[in-house]
Amino acid sequence: MPTMTPLRRVHHVAIICSRYDVSRAFYVEVLGLRVVAEHYRAERKSYKLDLALPGGEQIELFSFPSPPPRPSRPEAQGLRHLAFAVDNVDESKAWLESLGVSVEPIRVDEYTGRRFTFFADPDGLPLELYECPVTEDVVYRE
Length: 142
What we know:
alpha/beta; 2,3-Dihydroxybiphenyl 1,2-Dioxygenase, domain 1; four-stranded mixed beta sheet; 8 strands
């Protein structure tokens, strides 16, 4: 049995969207994520789109016929939000706003002192920009 966790990093986050074409355009054309693979699963009437971030992490975007809506935001049981590390939250916020994405005012994490803000995908899934410059990345070890 290992003495340290064998878990190394998050590999992917799975998201079920209500309108595949709209969500695909948002994640690929607006956020600029790279398409790794795209499949239509006829037996499930469902698309599965694998998207990659520059660090290798992935987002799986799924469509299903008539998925139930998220009950509330952001305190519903399940995924609260998905956070993206950015070098500069001001520049990242301005970039999203230049693309027509509504972004909340920047806040400061009371415990870490890091700056962050939220925006939403086409289904209202809360997405976060979290200022974490590459030079300040921390690898947690026991």
